[in-house]
Hints:
The protein is of the alpha+beta class. It is about 45% helix and about 15% strand. It is built from three helices and three strands. It has a three-stranded antiparallel beta sheet with strand order 1-3-2.
Amino acid sequence: MDDIKTYVTVRHVAKTLGLTEAWIRGLIARKELKAVKIGQWKINPKDLEEFIKNRTNTKA
C-alpha cells in the first residue's frame, strides 16, 4: 500500500480539477473516484491520475 501521507484531500482534488468539494464527494459516493476514509476522505494521487486519464477525450 502507498504511504497515506502522499494521499490528497477532497479540497485539494476540487481545487486541482476546478470543481466543488461536494462534486468530488459525489464522485466518491458513486464510486467513480476511489478514496479511503481516515477521518476524512483521502485520494491516492495514482487513483486521481487514473480517474483523469479515463475521462480524457483523446484517441489512443
